[in-house]
Specification:
heterodimer; A: mainly alpha; Fumarate Reductase Cytochrome B subunit; B: mainly alpha; 2 domains
């Protein structure tokens, strides 16, 4: 029972860090003005066009595809493996399990493997490509290590040392309603959960901020309509006015 | 500074990605601005005593003024997609010329002073104290970036190193370490009205000379009007167009187009410069002040339209920033876009059948086109995205029978900088300029060998000057470079308007 309470507490702290930390950054980004029109052109001239572009960037990683085919392949496999694996985990939080979550269970399992494959590919590049080796800080390796460990421990639980799924689900369901339940004392499970908690905590302090950041990138999100519509920011307009004669 | 001896890179027609060579360009650094170049721009004359705190305060100020900065500094995941995209990296192999590494020079300091991770775990996340060595590295490598935005095309988050370079230069200037070349030029514009410091009388002289020269050559009285109140069009063009080769042939081309179309136009001696080096040093105040002269000239001359000559960064500033800096343009004719590029104007005239071109006049040439970085990735022409690529090509095809494009990975938004943009077109950076031109020169070499290309047209004063200087280093003729409007002017058929 103590274990359940401790992990419940840790999860709450982690969720708090993640939500508040990211919210603070997002507020900061949205409150910082963009004084000049700086889309990387050719850029869309309509809002619809910008939405389409952002869809292609977020879902297909279009620019990365232009930039590096290998990084695109591994990066895309990792991210979308992660997405389906996360969706698969919804079964621990829903009762009865949503139909579509049931349906994608088998995809989600592949997701874990695909994610791991992508991560190892990305990590290999950090050693094999001299340019990427040069720009890699210890934190870049540790981030990959952390994600590999999360994916690895998750797959190990599924295929190796099974855990008490029913008890685990009671714990996760309890989290949602602040009703602490016991957590199975399986080492692999505890490792898996601890690493996830750690990832959630460091999210707003790390390069994982690219996830909210992309939606605030002026070069991607701005429309190319400077002649049609005058754009300005208050601090810049103050300067503009000061030179009027 | 002692002249650094260097060897000209070997040009292959397919570009190879060099292995990293740390420190390969650590000796490259432009002359530092003197007090007389700094102070007129509002910067301290020399390194201030408390430079460290001034620099950190400036960084904080910029982080609050430009959303791009916190977003770009936070979002990079070090994926490496940009590492082989910079022409300066490809030409030098210096890893600090990889866009991400160039950003990291600023990012590592940002992390140390403005992020939790960098404050408590600096080693882990690569955060560093701001030291004199860091300042030196900033000065070196923020002057090995031409702000061409090529890296931003391939970045999954659109991170534009130009924005980082501009911030880096702005911080440097604010502690008293500005760049002589750019700041001296901006000072001349503030004082006299153009980058060259060409005063009104000299301008009159030059333009009169051009009128005589053109009339002698083609027997048509093409005018080059200056300060003509009541003209329809104010033409603002880079001052290099007034005398440098091959720029001046472009100016002659514009004048011929205006003449044949019967458009009344004028240059201004007050605003005799389209270039705006304010963008290069990343300083809003100076960029605004340079642009303001043009607004004033347009009002004083009572023109209806403003047209911009062939200049890359000038067109980015004009197209993307003017409306912000000196708009709204409610005193101009709303029937025309403001500003309008000379290529747009000529293209429209051609579409309307108001100009007739005889491509046979350029039959001695096989022409290719160098997309200028600021036009390609920082602006547009015409009504649809990509007009900046199709319109100049349409003009060249109308004026020449033989046109060949260079490899697609080196044109349109993938184009390579000429190697001299972004305020680096100075002889104290000659090695950088020569090596930075390598990717473009490789693509050019291929079309020379495979298609017999004889000329490369450009629509940027910096590109034209840079190529005229560095192509000979690679054994190519400096006269290969031509203005697009030189081709137009040479092909233009003069019909008397009766």
């Amino acid at each position: 029972m103590i274990l359940g309470t401790v992990y419940a507490f840790l999860f709450l702290v982690a969720v708090f860090c993640l939500v508040v930390g990211v919210a603070l950054r997002v507020i900061r980004y949205s409150r910082t003005p963009v004084p000049l029109v700086i889309p990387t052109t050719p850029a869309p001239t309509t809002t619809r066009g910008v939405v389409a572009l952002m869809f292609r960037e977020v879902v297909l990683f279009e620019s990365l595809f232009k930039g590096s085919k290998w990084t695109w392949l591994f990066g895309w496999l990792f991210h979308f493996g992660l997405v389906v694996a996360l969706l698969r985990h919804l079964r621990y939080f829903t009762e009865p399990v949503w139909q579509w979550v049931e349906v994608i269970q088998w995809v989600g399992l592949y997701g874990g493997g695909v994610m791991l494959f992508g991560l190892l590919g990305l990590w290999a590049r950090r050693f094999l490509v001299d340019r990427v080796r040069y720009i890699s800080a210890p934190s870049d390796h540790l981030m990959l290590a952390l994600l590999v460990a999360i994916a690895g421990s998750g797959l190990a639980i599924k295929y190796g040392v099974h855990t008490d799924i029913v008890a685990l689900k009671a714990f996760t369901r309890g989290l949602l309603v602040f009703d602490w339940q016991p957590l199975p004392a399986e080492p692999l499970l505890l490792i898996h959960l601890t690493l996830v908690i750690f990832l959630m905590v460091i999210f707003p302090f790390s390069k994982l901020l690219h996830a909210p950041g992309i939606f605030f990138s002026p070069t991607l999100t701005m429309k190319d309509t400077p002649r049609e519509k005058r754009h300005s920011a208050p601090w810049a307009d103050e300067i503009n006015r000061s030179t009027l004669r | 500074m002692a002249k650094h001896e260097f060897s000209i890179p070997v040009v292959k027609s397919t570009l190879e990605i060099p292995p990293i060579q740390p420190g390969a360009m650590a000796h490259s650094s432009p002359f530092v601005a003197k007090a007389e170049h700094q102070q007129p721009l509002g910067f301290p004359g020399e390194l201030v005593d408390n430079w460290k705190s001034v620099a950190i305060d400036k960084m904080e100020e910029l982080l609050g003024k430009y959303r791009a900065l916190p977003v770009f500094l936070d979002s990079c995941v070090k994926c490496g997609a940009c590492t082989d995209k910079c022409h300066y990296y490809l030409g030098t192999g210096d890893p600090k010329n990889m866009p991400v590494a160039r950003q990291d020079l600023l990012r590592s300091v940002y992390r140390r002073y403005f992020t939790v991770a960098g404050k408590y775990f600096p080693k882990l996340v690569g955060a560093v104290e701001l030291t004199e060595e860091v300042i030196d590295d900033w000065y070196r490598y923020y002057h090995q970036c031409s702000e061409c935005r090529r890296c931003s095309v391939y970045c999954p988050f659109g991170i534009d190193t130009a924005e980082i370079t501009m911030a880096g230069r702005e911080i440097l200037a604010s502690i008293g370490v500005g760049q002589k070349y750019a700041n001296e030029i901006i000072g001349k514009v503030h004082k006299i009205g153009n980058n060259l410091g060409l005063p009104g009388p000299a301008l009159i002289n030059t333009l009169e000379g051009l009128e005589e020269e053109v009339e002698e050559e083609i027997n048509v009285p093409v005018k080059f009007p200056l300060d003509q109140v009541g003209a329809d069009v104010l033409l603002v063009t880079p001052s290099a167009d007034f005398f440098a080769e091959p720029h001046v042939d472009g100016l002659i081309g514009y004048a011929k187009v205006f003449h044949q179309a019967g458009i009344s136009w004028t240059l201004s001696s007050y605003a005799s410069e389209a270039a705006n080096f304010g963008i290069f040093i990343g300083n809003y105040e100076n960029m605004q002040k340079v642009a303001e002269r043009i607004r004033q000239a347009a009002i004083d001359l009572g023109v209806k339209r403003i047209v911009v000559g062939e200049c890359g960064h000038a067109w980015r500033v004009a197209y993307s920033f003017w409306n912000t800096l000196i708009g709204p343009f409610d005193f101009l004719d709303p029937a025309y876009p403001t500003p309008q590029h000379i290529c747009e104007l000529t293209y429209d005239l051609l579409q309307q059948g108001q100009l007739k071109l005889d491509p046979a006049q350029n039959d001695d040439k096989v022409v290719t086109f160098h997309d200028s970085c600021n036009v390609s990735r920082g602006s547009r022409m015409g009504d649809t995205p990509g007009g900046q690529f199709t319109i100049p090509r349409a003009l060249i095809r109308s004026a020449c029978s033989h046109f060949v494009d260079m490899a697609p990975e080196t044109t349109h938004e993938h184009t390579f900088c000429c190697g001299g943009g972004g305020g680096l077109l100075t002889d104290d950076l000659l090695e950088l300029r020569v090596k930075g031109a390598l990717p473009r020169v490789s693509a050019l070499k291929r079309v020379i060998e495979e298609d017999g290309v004889t000329h490369m047209a450009a629509i940027c004063a910096i590109c034209k000057s840079q190529f005229s200087k560095v192509l000979p280093e690679y054994g190519m003729g400096m006269d290969m470079v031509v203005s697009v409007h030189q081709l137009i002017g040479d092909a233009l058929v003069f019909e008397s308007a009766q």
